[in-house]
Design a protein that fits this description.
Elements (H helix, E strand, L loop, with lengths): L4 H23 L1 H27 L4 H13 L4 E9 L2 E9 H9 L2 H9 L1 H8 L4 E4 L11 E7 L6
Antiparallel strand pairs: 1-2, 2-4, 3-4
Amino acid sequence: MSVSVIEQAKIQAQVLVPLVKALQAELGEARANALVRKSLGDLYRRFGEEFWKAKNESDLGKAVSSAFRTYARDDALAYDVIEQTHDAFAFDVTRCAYAEFYKALGEPELGFVLVCTADFATAEGFGPDVKLTRTQTIMQGASHCDFRYRRDAGGSR
């Protein structure tokens, strides 16, 4: 039995939240957050690369849909699919247990740094032709997160 991503995030927060807060106190918030984003970004980019290779799927909609079912496991996310095609997967997250957890900790800003910024790095790992746009997140107080994955015109897999 594997541990769900939401449970992993809760376990990691026990170490990462105090660590990031200590880094912020020592280095300043902006510098500490940039360091954390870069370090975690490298990690999540590799996760994206490994996922994409293991999936071996040319259909972007199917591949990203599969990835988000993993993140949504254990009722972690509720989302509505807007578009799913060979070259796109667009959806709105309407409830986010990750945001609920970090808000309960009183640390939604750290939740954004530790959880939400990983989405872009992971998408980079899917390849140079895959782009993610997102203009808002529940973690930052919006009503929903608007994920839009697209394959660049001319890109193919």
